[in-house]
Design goal:
Length: 247
């Protein structure tokens, strides 16, 4: 009987380990459906405005929606028109934290804050509310070594994001890039000149091969982002003409 109980306990342990790793895989996404001829172009950091503009222009010229994972600190008021053009296009803006911190090193409240602060800063720059619904952890990192880090997962979820979007292709040499992707690939680029030139070379080839390009939200089955006005500032208590006492 004791043996049976021990066996049962072992089975439970194995089962829970399998479930835990399955849950984490579900949280971190490296690619979309391998049966669909779709690709996702993602562009991180957005710290170089000139390259951001060039890559966005390329996306619009070629009809290739892209997902821009921006940092909070790079969002500048003087770039408002560019950010509005992106927000109102077929592209998507995602959250890449405020300062590019490695999330496993941060406590829960700071993980939530760095994601929240980026959302607040984006809304300030845009002048309206653009609720980011996808996030990418800096360095693609939600772990320390091989240890799964459940506190990162729980904190990112508490900030309102149900997945960490990673990638399966990080290759900015055009020849190597053209060999690296397959159905459902999520490709990683940055706002640097080499990456812009690579995109200019590989995107027309991918289009010719019949690939469809989608945002991260579309790849993972979310509705597109819906923009809304910022809440109006609190009304001041000064009396209006109507309420002023009449003589
Ligand atoms: Zn980054």
């Amino acid at each position: 009987m004791k043996r049976l109980t021990a066996l049962f306990l072992c089975l439970l342990l194995v089962l829970s380990a399998v479930c835990a790793s399955a849950a984490e895989f579900k949280f971190s996404i490296r690619n979309g459906d391998r049966n669909e001829k779709r690709l996702c172009i993602t562009v991180d950091d957005c710290s170089n405005t000139e390259m951001l503009q060039n890559i966005f222009n390329l996306s619009q010229e070629l009809g290739v929606p892209m997902t821009f994972f921006t940092l909070g600190y790079v969002l500048k008021d003087e770039d408002r028109e560019l950010w509005r053009s992106i927000a109102e296009s077929d592209c998507e803006i995602g959250n890449h934290t405020y300062w590019h911190e490695s999330l496993p090193k941060l406590p829960r409240n700071e993980i939530i804050k760095t994601l929240d602060d980026t959302q607040i800063r984006l809304d300030e720059v845009l002048g309206y509310h653009y609720p980011m619904q996808v996030m990418r952890p800096p360095y693609g990192n939600t772990r320390i070594g091989n240890e799964s880090n459940i506190h990162v997962v729980r904190s990112v979820e508490a900030a309102g994001y149900d997945h960490a979007i990673l990638w399966d292709v990080s290759q900015t040499n055009p020849k190597k890039c053209l060999k690296a992707y397959k159905n459902g690939s999520i490709l990683l680029f940055h706002t640097i000149e080499k990456d812009w030139l690579c995109l200019a070379e590989v995107l027309p080839v991918m289009k010719e091969e019949g690939y469809e390009f989608v945002t991260v939200s579309e790849m993972i089955g979310k509705e597109p982002v819906v923009i809304s006005p910022l809440p109006a500032p609190e009304e001041t208590q000064q009396p209006t003409e109507e309420t002023e006492p009449q003589e």
